[in-house]
Protein backbone atom coordinates (compact mmCIF):
# COMPACT_ATOMS: atom_id res chain seq x y z
CA UNK A 1 0.00 0.00 0.00
CA UNK A 2 1.23 3.50 -0.85
CA UNK A 3 -0.08 5.12 2.36
CA UNK A 4 -1.66 4.09 5.65
CA UNK A 5 -4.72 6.21 4.88
CA UNK A 6 -6.11 8.37 2.09
CA UNK A 7 -8.36 11.32 2.92
CA UNK A 8 -10.42 12.77 0.08
CA UNK A 9 -11.18 16.47 0.60
CA UNK A 10 -10.07 19.11 3.10
CA UNK A 11 -13.36 20.33 4.59
CA UNK A 12 -14.73 19.91 8.09
CA UNK A 13 -14.97 16.13 8.29
CA UNK A 14 -11.82 15.55 6.24
CA UNK A 15 -9.74 17.80 8.49
CA UNK A 16 -11.03 15.97 11.56
CA UNK A 17 -9.90 12.73 9.90
CA UNK A 18 -6.43 14.13 9.15
CA UNK A 19 -6.01 15.34 12.73
CA UNK A 20 -6.95 12.01 14.29
CA UNK A 21 -4.90 9.94 11.84
CA UNK A 22 -1.86 12.16 12.38
CA UNK A 23 -2.17 11.73 16.14
CA UNK A 24 -1.74 7.98 15.55
CA UNK A 25 1.37 8.49 13.44
CA UNK A 26 -0.22 7.35 10.18
CA UNK A 27 1.23 8.13 6.74
CA UNK A 28 -1.59 10.13 5.20
CA UNK A 29 -2.27 11.32 1.67
CA UNK A 30 -4.84 14.09 1.30
CA UNK A 31 -6.37 14.48 -2.16
CA UNK A 32 -7.90 17.91 -2.78
CA UNK A 33 -9.72 18.87 -5.98
CA UNK A 34 -8.86 22.56 -5.58
CA UNK A 35 -5.82 24.49 -4.50
CA UNK A 36 -4.76 27.13 -1.99
CA UNK A 37 -6.58 30.44 -1.50
CA UNK A 38 -5.33 33.14 0.82
CA UNK A 39 -5.43 36.87 1.44
CA UNK A 40 -3.50 39.17 -0.90
CA UNK A 41 -2.92 41.57 2.00
CA UNK A 42 -0.35 41.59 4.78
CA UNK A 43 -0.82 42.76 8.34
CA UNK A 44 0.52 46.20 9.14
CA UNK A 45 1.95 44.90 12.41
CA UNK A 46 2.52 41.15 11.98
CA UNK A 47 3.25 38.93 14.98
CA UNK A 48 6.86 38.25 15.92
CA UNK A 49 7.85 35.59 15.08
CA UNK A 50 5.50 35.47 12.08
CA UNK A 51 3.53 32.35 11.23
CA UNK A 52 4.83 30.08 8.44
CA UNK A 53 4.53 31.73 5.04
CA UNK A 54 2.07 29.84 2.84
CA UNK A 55 3.10 31.24 -0.58
CA UNK A 56 6.76 30.40 0.03
CA UNK A 57 5.99 26.88 1.25
CA UNK A 58 3.58 26.30 -1.64
CA UNK A 59 6.15 27.44 -4.21
CA UNK A 60 8.74 25.06 -2.76
CA UNK A 61 6.26 22.19 -2.96
CA UNK A 62 4.79 22.94 -6.38
CA UNK A 63 1.37 23.97 -5.08
CA UNK A 64 -0.50 26.78 -6.88
CA UNK A 65 -1.74 29.65 -4.72
CA UNK A 66 -4.54 32.06 -5.57
CA UNK A 67 -5.82 35.12 -3.76
CA UNK A 68 -9.24 36.18 -2.52
CA UNK A 69 -11.37 38.48 -4.67
CA UNK A 70 -10.33 41.84 -3.24
CA UNK A 71 -12.08 45.01 -4.53
CA UNK A 72 -15.03 45.86 -2.28
CA UNK A 73 -16.91 47.61 -5.09
CA UNK A 74 -18.54 46.71 -8.39
CA UNK A 75 -15.23 45.97 -10.13
CA UNK A 76 -14.70 43.21 -7.58
CA UNK A 77 -17.23 41.16 -9.54
CA UNK A 78 -14.47 40.65 -12.11
CA UNK A 79 -12.39 38.95 -9.44
CA UNK A 80 -15.43 36.97 -8.35
CA UNK A 81 -16.19 35.77 -11.89
CA UNK A 82 -12.54 34.76 -12.27
CA UNK A 83 -12.86 32.66 -9.11
CA UNK A 84 -15.71 30.45 -10.35
CA UNK A 85 -14.76 26.88 -11.17
CA UNK A 86 -15.61 25.50 -14.61
CA UNK A 87 -13.95 23.29 -17.23
CA UNK A 88 -11.68 26.12 -18.30
CA UNK A 89 -10.82 27.09 -14.71
CA UNK A 90 -10.18 23.97 -12.62
CA UNK A 91 -8.59 26.09 -9.90
CA UNK A 92 -11.70 28.26 -9.32
CA UNK A 93 -12.90 28.57 -5.73
CA UNK A 94 -16.68 28.75 -6.15
CA UNK A 95 -18.58 25.74 -7.49
CA UNK A 96 -22.04 26.85 -8.56
CA UNK A 97 -23.96 23.68 -9.40
CA UNK A 98 -27.16 24.46 -11.28
CA UNK A 99 -29.84 21.76 -11.19
CA UNK A 100 -33.44 21.94 -12.39
CA UNK A 101 -34.94 23.03 -9.06
CA UNK A 102 -32.03 24.21 -6.93
CA UNK A 103 -28.65 25.87 -7.32
CA UNK A 104 -26.00 24.68 -4.85
CA UNK A 105 -22.97 26.74 -3.82
CA UNK A 106 -19.93 24.80 -2.63
CA UNK A 107 -16.18 25.33 -2.45
CA UNK A 108 -13.15 24.08 -4.37
CA UNK A 109 -9.98 24.71 -2.40
CA UNK A 110 -7.82 23.62 0.50
CA UNK A 111 -10.10 24.14 3.49
CA UNK A 112 -13.29 23.13 1.68
CA UNK A 113 -16.48 24.86 2.75
CA UNK A 114 -14.70 26.77 5.54
CA UNK A 115 -13.31 29.06 2.82
CA UNK A 116 -16.72 30.45 1.85
CA UNK A 117 -19.15 29.87 4.73
CA UNK A 118 -20.58 32.31 7.24
CA UNK A 119 -18.59 30.80 10.19
CA UNK A 120 -21.81 30.29 12.23
CA UNK A 121 -21.45 27.37 14.64
CA UNK A 122 -24.60 25.86 16.17
CA UNK A 123 -25.69 22.74 18.03
CA UNK A 124 -28.99 21.42 16.62
CA UNK A 125 -32.00 20.78 18.81
CA UNK A 126 -32.11 17.26 20.24
CA UNK A 127 -35.67 16.78 18.97
CA UNK A 128 -34.59 17.57 15.40
CA UNK A 129 -31.76 15.02 15.55
CA UNK A 130 -34.13 12.42 16.98
CA UNK A 131 -36.58 12.98 14.13
CA UNK A 132 -33.93 12.26 11.49
CA UNK A 133 -32.31 9.41 13.43
CA UNK A 134 -28.91 10.98 14.06
CA UNK A 135 -27.48 9.64 17.32
CA UNK A 136 -25.43 12.59 18.57
CA UNK A 137 -25.84 14.01 22.06
CA UNK A 138 -24.40 16.70 24.29
CA UNK A 139 -21.14 14.81 24.89
CA UNK A 140 -20.47 14.47 21.15
CA UNK A 141 -21.17 18.15 20.57
CA UNK A 142 -18.97 19.11 23.53
CA UNK A 143 -16.17 17.10 21.91
CA UNK A 144 -16.81 18.85 18.59
CA UNK A 145 -16.64 22.25 20.23
CA UNK A 146 -13.43 21.28 22.03
CA UNK A 147 -11.86 20.10 18.76
CA UNK A 148 -12.98 23.28 16.97
CA UNK A 149 -11.50 25.66 19.53
CA UNK A 150 -8.30 23.62 19.93
CA UNK A 151 -7.63 23.18 16.21
CA UNK A 152 -9.13 26.33 14.72
CA UNK A 153 -9.80 29.05 17.30
CA UNK A 154 -12.26 30.37 19.85
CA UNK A 155 -15.90 30.91 18.99
CA UNK A 156 -17.17 34.47 19.43
CA UNK A 157 -20.43 36.42 19.40
CA UNK A 158 -19.96 39.39 17.06
CA UNK A 159 -23.10 41.53 16.95
CA UNK A 160 -21.59 44.93 17.73
CA UNK A 161 -19.74 47.60 15.79
CA UNK A 162 -16.74 47.32 18.09
CA UNK A 163 -15.28 44.54 20.25
CA UNK A 164 -17.06 44.62 23.59
CA UNK A 165 -15.32 44.94 26.95
CA UNK A 166 -15.78 42.02 29.33
CA UNK A 167 -18.28 44.05 31.36
CA UNK A 168 -20.81 44.00 28.48
CA UNK A 169 -23.08 41.10 27.53
CA UNK A 170 -23.73 40.86 23.76
CA UNK A 171 -27.04 39.13 24.43
CA UNK A 172 -28.41 42.25 26.14
CA UNK A 173 -26.75 45.66 25.98
CA UNK A 174 -29.58 47.44 27.74
CA UNK A 175 -29.58 51.19 27.03
CA UNK A 176 -26.35 50.83 25.02
CA UNK A 177 -28.05 49.05 22.12
CA UNK A 178 -26.57 51.68 19.80
CA UNK A 179 -23.42 49.51 19.95
CA UNK A 180 -25.17 46.76 18.01
CA UNK A 181 -24.63 46.42 14.30
CA UNK A 182 -27.70 48.00 12.75
CA UNK A 183 -28.95 44.79 11.13
CA UNK A 184 -28.46 42.79 14.34
CA UNK A 185 -30.56 45.33 16.24
CA UNK A 186 -33.16 45.42 13.45
CA UNK A 187 -33.65 41.64 13.65
CA UNK A 188 -33.92 41.81 17.44
CA UNK A 189 -36.54 44.54 17.38
CA UNK A 190 -38.54 42.93 14.58
CA UNK A 191 -38.57 39.61 16.47
CA UNK A 192 -40.49 41.28 19.29
CA UNK A 193 -43.06 42.61 16.81
CA UNK A 194 -43.44 39.19 15.15
CA UNK A 195 -43.92 37.54 18.55
CA UNK A 196 -46.69 39.97 19.34
CA UNK A 197 -48.36 39.57 15.94
CA UNK A 198 -48.35 35.77 16.21
CA UNK A 199 -49.41 35.69 19.85
CA UNK A 200 -46.23 34.00 21.06
CA UNK A 201 -44.98 34.06 24.64
CA UNK A 202 -42.04 36.14 25.79
CA UNK A 203 -39.90 33.00 26.03
CA UNK A 204 -40.60 32.04 22.41
CA UNK A 205 -38.87 33.24 19.23
CA UNK A 206 -36.14 34.98 21.18
CA UNK A 207 -33.35 36.84 19.40
CA UNK A 208 -29.82 35.64 20.17
CA UNK A 209 -26.30 36.22 18.83
CA UNK A 210 -24.67 33.43 16.84
CA UNK A 211 -21.36 31.91 17.83
CA UNK A 212 -18.90 32.48 15.01
CA UNK A 213 -15.56 30.86 14.14
CA UNK A 214 -13.90 34.28 13.86
CA UNK A 215 -11.19 35.89 15.93
CA UNK A 216 -12.34 38.82 18.08
CA UNK A 217 -10.39 41.17 20.31
CA UNK A 218 -10.83 40.65 24.06
CA UNK A 219 -9.27 42.75 26.76
CA UNK A 220 -8.24 39.71 28.84
CA UNK A 221 -8.33 35.93 29.04
CA UNK A 222 -8.00 33.33 26.28
CA UNK A 223 -9.53 35.68 23.72
CA UNK A 224 -6.86 38.26 24.41
CA UNK A 225 -4.13 35.64 24.11
CA UNK A 226 -5.52 34.53 20.75
CA UNK A 227 -5.79 38.02 19.27
CA UNK A 228 -2.35 39.02 20.57
CA UNK A 229 -0.85 35.90 18.98
CA UNK A 230 -2.57 36.55 15.64
CA UNK A 231 -2.31 40.38 15.64
CA UNK A 232 -5.73 40.49 13.98
CA UNK A 233 -9.44 40.24 14.71
CA UNK A 234 -12.75 40.78 12.94
CA UNK A 235 -12.95 44.17 11.21
CA UNK A 236 -16.66 43.82 10.27
CA UNK A 237 -15.98 43.88 6.52
CA UNK A 238 -19.07 41.83 5.59
CA UNK A 239 -17.22 39.46 3.28
CA UNK A 240 -16.56 36.20 5.15
CA UNK A 241 -17.76 34.11 2.18
CA UNK A 242 -15.46 36.04 -0.17
CA UNK A 243 -12.34 35.50 1.93
CA UNK A 244 -11.30 37.39 5.05
CA UNK A 245 -8.67 39.91 4.01
CA UNK A 246 -7.49 40.41 7.61
CA UNK A 247 -7.21 36.63 8.25
CA UNK A 248 -9.62 36.68 11.17
CA UNK A 249 -11.82 33.73 10.15
CA UNK A 250 -10.76 30.32 11.48
CA UNK A 251 -10.67 28.57 8.11
CA UNK A 252 -9.40 25.00 7.82
CA UNK A 253 -6.65 25.76 5.32
CA UNK A 254 -4.68 27.32 8.14
CA UNK A 255 -5.44 24.38 10.44
CA UNK A 256 -4.01 21.97 7.87
CA UNK A 257 -1.08 24.13 6.84
CA UNK A 258 0.20 25.25 10.23
CA UNK A 259 -0.85 22.17 12.17
CA UNK A 260 0.24 19.37 9.84
CA UNK A 261 1.78 20.25 6.49
CA UNK A 262 4.71 22.49 7.45
CA UNK A 263 6.11 19.78 9.72
CA UNK A 264 7.11 16.68 7.68
CA UNK A 265 7.23 14.65 10.88
CA UNK A 266 3.42 14.77 11.03
CA UNK A 267 3.31 12.38 8.08
CA UNK A 268 0.71 14.34 6.05
CA UNK A 269 1.10 14.83 2.28
CA UNK A 270 -1.31 17.08 0.37
CA UNK A 271 -1.93 16.56 -3.35
CA UNK A 272 -3.83 19.58 -4.71
CA UNK A 273 -5.70 19.74 -8.03
CA UNK A 274 -6.48 16.04 -7.67
CA UNK A 275 -10.06 15.28 -8.71
CA UNK A 276 -11.04 11.85 -7.38
CA UNK A 277 -13.06 9.80 -9.83
CA UNK A 278 -13.76 6.51 -8.10
CA UNK A 279 -12.66 4.00 -5.47
CA UNK A 280 -12.31 0.26 -5.95
CA UNK A 281 -11.51 -2.57 -3.59
CA UNK A 282 -8.11 -4.26 -3.99
CA UNK A 283 -6.30 -6.82 -1.88
CA UNK A 284 -5.80 -5.45 1.65
CA UNK A 285 -7.45 -2.11 0.94
CA UNK A 286 -8.56 0.32 -1.76
CA UNK A 287 -7.32 1.97 -4.92
CA UNK A 288 -8.33 5.58 -5.45
CA UNK A 289 -8.29 6.86 -9.05
CA UNK A 290 -7.97 10.60 -9.64
CA UNK A 291 -7.23 13.13 -12.35
CA UNK A 292 -4.07 15.11 -11.63
CA UNK A 293 -4.56 18.62 -13.02
CA UNK A 294 -0.99 19.53 -12.17
CA UNK A 295 -0.13 16.98 -14.89
CA UNK A 296 -2.68 18.02 -17.52
CA UNK A 297 -5.42 15.84 -16.08
CA UNK A 298 -3.51 12.56 -16.24
CA UNK A 299 -5.30 9.70 -14.45
CA UNK A 300 -3.35 8.31 -11.50
CA UNK A 301 -3.98 5.82 -8.71
CA UNK A 302 -2.91 5.46 -5.09
CA UNK A 303 -3.65 2.73 -2.55
CA UNK A 304 -4.22 2.48 1.18
CA UNK A 305 -5.93 0.10 3.63
CA UNK A 306 -8.19 2.94 4.82
CA UNK A 307 -10.00 5.60 2.76
CA UNK A 308 -11.98 8.49 4.29
CA UNK A 309 -14.32 10.30 1.91
CA UNK A 310 -14.77 13.95 2.88
CA UNK A 311 -15.37 15.58 -0.50
CA UNK A 312 -18.61 17.26 0.59
CA UNK A 313 -22.17 16.18 -0.12
CA UNK A 314 -21.99 16.66 -3.88
CA UNK A 315 -18.44 15.36 -4.23
CA UNK A 316 -18.82 12.21 -2.15
CA UNK A 317 -22.14 11.24 -3.75
CA UNK A 318 -20.59 11.64 -7.20
CA UNK A 319 -17.51 9.58 -6.26
CA UNK A 320 -19.54 6.73 -4.78
CA UNK A 321 -22.11 6.70 -7.60
CA UNK A 322 -19.25 6.41 -10.09
CA UNK A 323 -17.52 3.80 -7.89
CA UNK A 324 -20.69 1.68 -7.96
CA UNK A 325 -20.73 1.91 -11.75
CA UNK A 326 -17.09 0.74 -11.68
CA UNK A 327 -18.00 -2.34 -9.64
CA UNK A 328 -17.88 -1.38 -5.95
CA UNK A 329 -21.04 -2.91 -4.42
CA UNK A 330 -22.97 -0.27 -2.49
CA UNK A 331 -26.45 0.15 -1.03
CA UNK A 332 -29.35 0.90 -3.36
CA UNK A 333 -30.00 3.88 -1.09
CA UNK A 334 -26.94 5.69 -2.45
CA UNK A 335 -27.92 9.17 -3.67
CA UNK A 336 -31.30 9.11 -1.92
CA UNK A 337 -32.70 11.45 0.76
CA UNK A 338 -30.89 14.66 -0.14
CA UNK A 339 -31.82 17.58 2.13
CA UNK A 340 -31.28 21.27 1.45
CA UNK A 341 -31.58 22.00 5.19
CA UNK A 342 -34.61 24.14 4.42
CA UNK A 343 -32.39 26.89 2.97
CA UNK A 344 -34.48 29.90 1.99
CA UNK A 345 -33.76 33.62 1.71
CA UNK A 346 -35.41 36.94 0.99
CA UNK A 347 -35.18 40.69 1.50
CA UNK A 348 -36.90 43.58 3.16
CA UNK A 349 -36.46 46.62 0.90
CA UNK A 350 -37.00 50.11 2.29
CA UNK A 351 -36.39 49.54 6.00
CA UNK A 352 -37.59 52.33 8.27
CA UNK A 353 -34.08 52.68 9.69
CA UNK A 354 -30.73 51.93 8.01
CA UNK A 355 -29.57 48.34 8.47
CA UNK A 356 -26.15 48.66 6.73
CA UNK A 357 -25.78 45.05 5.50
CA UNK A 358 -22.27 45.63 4.14
CA UNK A 359 -20.93 45.86 7.72
CA UNK A 360 -20.25 43.01 10.12
CA UNK A 361 -19.73 39.25 9.71
CA UNK A 362 -21.93 37.36 7.22
CA UNK A 363 -24.44 36.22 9.87
CA UNK A 364 -24.59 37.67 13.36
CA UNK A 365 -27.84 36.62 15.06
CA UNK A 366 -30.88 34.37 14.80
CA UNK A 367 -34.48 33.90 15.92
CA UNK A 368 -35.92 30.37 16.34
CA UNK A 369 -39.55 29.37 15.77
CA UNK A 370 -41.56 26.17 16.10
CA UNK A 371 -44.51 25.97 13.71
CA UNK A 372 -46.63 22.85 13.11
CA UNK A 373 -43.96 20.62 14.61
CA UNK A 374 -41.13 22.12 12.56
CA UNK A 375 -38.21 24.19 13.77
CA UNK A 376 -37.46 27.27 11.65
CA UNK A 377 -34.57 29.71 12.02
CA UNK A 378 -34.43 33.28 10.69
CA UNK A 379 -31.09 35.12 10.55
CA UNK A 380 -29.65 38.38 9.33
CA UNK A 381 -27.12 38.18 6.51
CA UNK A 382 -24.53 40.54 5.06
CA UNK A 383 -24.48 41.80 1.49
CA UNK A 384 -20.80 42.07 0.50
CA UNK A 385 -19.96 45.50 -0.87
CA UNK A 386 -18.77 44.16 -4.22
CA UNK A 387 -22.26 42.75 -4.82
CA UNK A 388 -24.17 45.66 -3.33
CA UNK A 389 -24.60 47.46 -6.65
CA UNK A 390 -26.22 44.44 -8.28
CA UNK A 391 -28.27 43.57 -5.19
CA UNK A 392 -29.46 47.15 -4.76
CA UNK A 393 -30.70 47.18 -8.34
CA UNK A 394 -32.27 43.74 -8.61
CA UNK A 395 -34.40 43.90 -5.46
CA UNK A 396 -36.05 47.08 -6.74
CA UNK A 397 -36.94 45.95 -10.26
CA UNK A 398 -38.45 42.47 -9.89
CA UNK A 399 -41.99 43.78 -10.35
CA UNK A 400 -41.11 45.78 -13.50
CA UNK A 401 -41.14 43.33 -16.43
CA UNK A 402 -39.21 45.56 -18.85
CA UNK A 403 -36.44 46.46 -16.45
CA UNK A 404 -36.30 42.90 -15.17
CA UNK A 405 -35.75 41.47 -18.66
CA UNK A 406 -33.14 44.14 -19.45
CA UNK A 407 -31.32 43.35 -16.23
CA UNK A 408 -31.37 39.60 -16.99
CA UNK A 409 -29.84 40.27 -20.40
CA UNK A 410 -27.10 42.49 -18.97
CA UNK A 411 -26.23 39.91 -16.31
CA UNK A 412 -26.08 37.10 -18.88
CA UNK A 413 -23.69 39.14 -21.00
CA UNK A 414 -21.55 39.99 -17.97
CA UNK A 415 -21.46 36.33 -16.90
CA UNK A 416 -20.46 35.15 -20.38
CA UNK A 417 -17.84 37.85 -20.90
CA UNK A 418 -16.65 37.79 -17.26
CA UNK A 419 -17.08 41.57 -17.23
CA UNK A 420 -18.63 44.13 -14.89
CA UNK A 421 -22.33 44.55 -15.71
CA UNK A 422 -23.40 47.98 -16.98
CA UNK A 423 -26.00 49.12 -14.45
CA UNK A 424 -26.31 52.67 -15.78
CA UNK A 425 -29.87 52.12 -17.11
CA UNK A 426 -30.98 51.60 -13.50
CA UNK A 427 -28.96 54.28 -11.71
CA UNK A 428 -29.23 58.09 -11.57
CA UNK A 429 -26.54 59.58 -13.80
CA UNK A 430 -26.56 63.14 -12.43
CA UNK A 431 -25.67 63.63 -8.76
CA UNK A 432 -28.22 65.54 -6.72
CA UNK A 433 -26.48 67.09 -3.69
CA UNK A 434 -29.83 68.23 -2.28
CA UNK A 435 -31.14 64.64 -1.90
CA UNK A 436 -29.72 62.67 1.07
CA UNK A 437 -30.99 59.48 -0.60
CA UNK A 438 -28.85 60.04 -3.70
CA UNK A 439 -26.84 56.81 -3.36
CA UNK A 440 -23.24 57.19 -4.42
CA UNK A 441 -21.49 54.26 -2.70
CA UNK A 442 -22.12 50.54 -2.51
CA UNK A 443 -22.91 50.84 1.18
CA UNK A 444 -25.53 53.50 0.54
CA UNK A 445 -27.19 51.52 -2.26
CA UNK A 446 -28.26 48.78 0.17
CA UNK A 447 -28.38 50.72 3.45
CA UNK A 448 -32.14 50.10 3.67
CA UNK A 449 -32.08 46.48 2.39
CA UNK A 450 -32.26 43.70 4.98
CA UNK A 451 -31.13 40.27 3.76
CA UNK A 452 -32.73 37.29 5.54
CA UNK A 453 -31.42 33.74 5.73
CA UNK A 454 -33.87 31.01 6.68
CA UNK A 455 -33.48 27.33 7.56
CA UNK A 456 -36.02 24.65 8.38
CA UNK A 457 -36.97 21.00 8.26
CA UNK A 458 -37.50 20.00 4.65
CA UNK A 459 -38.66 16.55 3.58
CA UNK A 460 -35.17 15.35 2.59
CA UNK A 461 -36.37 13.53 -0.52
CA UNK A 462 -34.04 14.72 -3.28
CA UNK A 463 -32.24 12.09 -5.35
CA UNK A 464 -28.73 12.20 -6.84
CA UNK A 465 -27.83 10.25 -9.96
CA UNK A 466 -25.20 10.28 -12.69
CA UNK A 467 -26.35 11.39 -16.13
CA UNK A 468 -23.64 11.19 -18.80
CA UNK A 469 -21.12 10.95 -15.96
CA UNK A 470 -22.31 14.25 -14.45
CA UNK A 471 -24.10 14.60 -11.11
CA UNK A 472 -27.82 15.32 -11.34
CA UNK A 473 -30.33 16.12 -8.60
CA UNK A 474 -34.10 15.72 -8.87
CA UNK A 475 -37.31 15.44 -6.87
CA UNK A 476 -40.42 13.45 -7.73
CA UNK A 477 -42.59 16.48 -6.88
CA UNK A 478 -41.35 20.09 -7.00
CA UNK A 479 -39.23 20.78 -3.93
CA UNK A 480 -40.44 24.37 -3.76
CA UNK A 481 -43.94 23.16 -2.89
CA UNK A 482 -42.84 21.65 0.40
CA UNK A 483 -44.67 23.37 3.30
CA UNK A 484 -41.48 24.47 5.06
CA UNK A 485 -40.69 27.10 2.42
CA UNK A 486 -44.13 28.66 2.65
CA UNK A 487 -43.75 28.77 6.43
CA UNK A 488 -40.36 30.48 6.22
CA UNK A 489 -41.63 32.94 3.60
CA UNK A 490 -44.57 33.76 5.86
CA UNK A 491 -42.14 34.63 8.65
CA UNK A 492 -40.06 36.78 6.30
CA UNK A 493 -43.17 38.71 5.33
CA UNK A 494 -43.94 39.31 9.01
CA UNK A 495 -40.39 40.42 9.75
CA UNK A 496 -40.46 42.73 6.71
CA UNK A 497 -43.74 44.25 7.84
CA UNK A 498 -42.11 45.05 11.19
CA UNK A 499 -38.99 46.54 9.58
CA UNK A 500 -40.34 48.41 6.55
CA UNK A 501 -40.99 52.11 6.28
CA UNK A 502 -44.31 53.52 5.08
CA UNK A 503 -42.79 54.49 1.70
CA UNK A 504 -44.43 53.03 -1.44
CA UNK A 505 -42.81 49.75 -2.46
CA UNK A 506 -41.23 49.11 0.94
CA UNK A 507 -41.58 45.57 2.27
CA UNK A 508 -40.80 41.95 1.50
CA UNK A 509 -39.03 41.03 -1.75
CA UNK A 510 -38.32 37.36 -2.60
CA UNK A 511 -35.02 36.00 -3.84
CA UNK A 512 -34.87 36.61 -7.61
CA UNK A 513 -34.62 32.87 -8.38
CA UNK A 514 -37.66 32.18 -6.21
CA UNK A 515 -39.73 34.82 -7.98
CA UNK A 516 -38.77 37.27 -10.71
CA UNK A 517 -35.76 36.08 -12.66
CA UNK A 518 -36.94 32.47 -12.30
CA UNK A 519 -39.85 30.83 -10.46
CA UNK A 520 -39.68 28.48 -7.48
CA UNK A 521 -35.94 27.82 -7.61
CA UNK A 522 -34.01 27.50 -4.35
CA UNK A 523 -30.47 28.58 -3.51
CA UNK A 524 -28.72 26.04 -1.27
CA UNK A 525 -25.62 26.50 0.87
CA UNK A 526 -26.16 23.55 3.26
CA UNK A 527 -26.43 20.42 1.05
CA UNK A 528 -26.88 17.29 3.18
CA UNK A 529 -27.43 13.58 2.67
CA UNK A 530 -27.33 11.07 -0.14
CA UNK A 531 -25.05 8.74 1.87
CA UNK A 532 -27.30 8.75 4.90
CA UNK A 533 -26.65 7.03 8.19
CA UNK A 534 -29.08 4.19 8.89
CA UNK A 535 -29.35 0.94 10.83
CA UNK A 536 -28.81 -1.28 7.78
CA UNK A 537 -28.15 -1.25 4.03
CA UNK A 538 -31.84 -1.32 3.11
CA UNK A 539 -32.31 2.07 4.78
CA UNK A 540 -29.03 3.88 4.24
CA UNK A 541 -25.48 3.92 2.89
CA UNK A 542 -23.33 4.03 6.05
CA UNK A 543 -23.74 2.92 9.64
CA UNK A 544 -23.67 5.14 12.73
CA UNK A 545 -19.85 5.20 12.59
CA UNK A 546 -19.60 6.22 8.94
CA UNK A 547 -18.64 2.73 7.71
CA UNK A 548 -19.88 2.10 4.16
CA UNK A 549 -22.32 -0.79 3.80
CA UNK A 550 -21.40 -3.66 1.49
CA UNK A 551 -24.05 -3.74 -1.23
CA UNK A 552 -23.07 -7.30 -2.22
CA UNK A 553 -24.86 -8.56 0.89
CA UNK A 554 -28.65 -9.00 1.07
CA UNK A 555 -30.68 -5.81 1.54
CA UNK A 556 -30.99 -5.09 5.24
CA UNK A 557 -27.58 -6.53 6.12
CA UNK A 558 -25.13 -4.61 8.30
CA UNK A 559 -21.91 -5.86 6.69
CA UNK A 560 -19.52 -3.05 5.74
CA UNK A 561 -16.53 -2.54 3.47
CA UNK A 562 -13.65 -2.71 5.99
CA UNK A 563 -11.62 0.50 5.97
CA UNK A 564 -14.00 2.60 3.82
CA UNK A 565 -15.59 5.57 5.61
CA UNK A 566 -17.57 8.74 4.88
CA UNK A 567 -16.83 11.73 7.13
CA UNK A 568 -18.74 14.65 5.57
CA UNK A 569 -22.24 16.13 5.40
CA UNK A 570 -23.46 13.49 2.95
CA UNK A 571 -24.07 11.08 5.88
CA UNK A 572 -26.49 13.41 7.67
CA UNK A 573 -29.92 11.81 7.19
CA UNK A 574 -32.02 14.97 7.06
CA UNK A 575 -32.22 18.66 7.90
CA UNK A 576 -30.51 19.69 11.14
CA UNK A 577 -31.93 23.24 10.66
CA UNK A 578 -28.89 24.74 12.39
CA UNK A 579 -25.73 25.56 10.44
CA UNK A 580 -24.35 22.02 10.00
CA UNK A 581 -20.61 22.45 10.57
CA UNK A 582 -20.62 21.47 14.28
CA UNK A 583 -22.78 18.44 13.44
CA UNK A 584 -20.36 17.39 10.68
CA UNK A 585 -17.46 17.76 13.12
CA UNK A 586 -19.23 15.77 15.86
CA UNK A 587 -20.12 12.92 13.51
CA UNK A 588 -16.61 12.86 12.00
CA UNK A 589 -15.07 12.60 15.47
CA UNK A 590 -17.41 9.69 16.21
CA UNK A 591 -16.41 8.01 12.95
CA UNK A 592 -12.70 8.45 13.62
CA UNK A 593 -13.02 7.06 17.15
CA UNK A 594 -14.46 3.87 15.67
CA UNK A 595 -12.01 3.73 12.78
CA UNK A 596 -8.98 3.98 15.07
CA UNK A 597 -10.31 1.94 18.01
Explain what you see.
The protein is an alpha/beta fold. The protein folds into 2 domains: 5-157 and 243-339 and 527-595, FAD/NAD(P)-binding domain; 174-211 and 343-459 and 475-522, no CATH class. It has helices at residues 12-23, 54-60, 76-82, 126-132, 138-151, 182-198, 221-230, 252-261, 312-325, 385-394, 401-417, 442-445, 483-499, 581-595, and strands at 5-8, 28-31, 36-38, 65-67, 94-98, 102-107, 120-121, 207-209, 211-212, 268-271, 274-282, 285-292, 298-304, 306-309, 336-339, 344-349, 365-371, 374-381, 449-456, 463-467, 470-474, 507-510, 522-524, 528-530, 547-549, 560-566. The chain has a 6-stranded mixed β-sheet with strand order 10-2-1-14-26-25, with helices on one face. A 6-stranded antiparallel β-sheet has the order 8-17-18-19-16-22, covered by helices on one side. A 3-stranded mixed β-sheet has the order 5-6-23, with no helix packed on it. A hairpin with a 2-residue loop joins strand 20 and strand 21 (470-474). Helix 1 runs parallel beside helix 8 (252-261) and helix 1 packs parallel to helix 14 (581-595). The longest helix has 17 residues, at 182-198. The radius of gyration is 24 Å and the shape is globular. The two termini are 21 Å apart.
